Amino acid sequence: MHAKKLNLELVVGLSLIGLIVFMALLSFFYTPYDPNAMEITAKLQAPSLTHLLGTDQFGRDVLSRIMAGSRLVLVIGLCTVTLALVLGGLLGILAGYFGGWVDRFIMKFIEVKMAFPGTLLALMLISLWGSNVVMIILALSLMNVPRFTRVVRSGYLQYRSTTFVEAGVAIGLPNWRIMFVHILPNLSSNIYITAALSFASAILSEAGLSYLGLGLQPPLASWGKMLGEAQPYMLQAPYLAIIPGVMITLAVLGFNLLADGLRKIY
Question: Which of 69, 107, 205, 210 is spaced 20 to 30 A from 166 at the CA atom?
Fold first, then answer.
């Protein structure tokens, strides 16, 4: 029974992620219409054979914009998780391996960082340097750095007193080799789980910022932006809000289920 539940979580999570990846890859070669092409005479058309998911207030094809938006979801999520893993991982490695004042200094820095709400930090950075893709990735990465730092640090605290680490020190192996070759691979499972959760968090945060008008700017097709633009048309064309809302939910759910499945495997 436990194995069936575990497999179901992984299968569903990977299937949802696979759907997003498939749409993103397909959108590089094909979309039913130009995602940014406006046709005012065709605005607010309900889903039909001509426009499978309808059109928005500017006559743009919703399906094409959903497909284009999936590319941004993956790019922003992947870049955010990678940058947060590199920065947070390095801080966690230094804190957990060396301990002492290095650990105290880094963890005080992380505590100060966590005292500021992540969304508030993102809003501050975006208001100072603009709401472009690079700044959004940087802001979302900084939000997720403490998560990776604490996970990696706890792993290094666990392993630094083990026999194989002490043996490496005794035979004169350099610290970098012990840290990255001998200890880090043992933390791969925790890192995978944290990365999946951070991916889901990045998707949700970007959608929230774009919904508020502080994320990706037009004409980029952001699911959160589509959701915000649909608000005045909730009664007239509810599909404009339902479709991007469902896509955001499926993407976040997919990565959360993946994290749950990985956690039960390891």
Answer: 107
Q: What's the rounded Cα separation, in Å, for the pair 158 and 107?
A: 16
Q: Which residues contact 224 (CB under 8 A, 6 or more apart)?
A: 206, 207, 208, 209, 210, 211, 215, 216, 244, 248
Is residue 2 a contact partner of residue 185, using CB atoms and an 8 Å limit?
no
Number of domains in the chain: 1
Are 17 and 255 a contacting pair, CB within 8 Å? yes
Q: Which residue has the tokens 């207030």?
A: 57
Q: Is residue 63 part of a domain?
A: no
Domain ranges, residue 190: 71-255
Determine the angle formed by the axes of helices 133-159 and 100-115, rounding to 10 degrees.
140
Give the model confidence (pLDDT) of 193-236 as tens digits.
999 999 999 999 888 888 887 777 777 888 988 998 898 898 88
126-182 per-position pLDDT tens digit? 777 777 788 888 888 988 999 999 999 998 888 877 787 778 778 877 878 878 888
Considering the domain boundaries, does residue 62 fall inside one? no
